[in-house]
Amino acid sequence: MTSHVPTVARKEFEDAGRSKLLWSLIGLLVGIVVIGYVAIWQTVDDTTAAEVLSLLC
Description:
This protein is 84% helix and 0% strand. The protein has helices spanning 7-43, 46-56. The chain crosses the membrane at residues 21-40.
């Protein structure tokens, strides 16, 4: 006996899960960038910040 879960509903559920995962990864990446940016600019002087940025670029 098979359960009749509509394919469309199952696909929408999977897409919603993927979308939430994507948004959480984007949020995590943005958080890391913001924290790194604030940490660099708040803890070091301008010369050191310029050196750090020149190394990164």
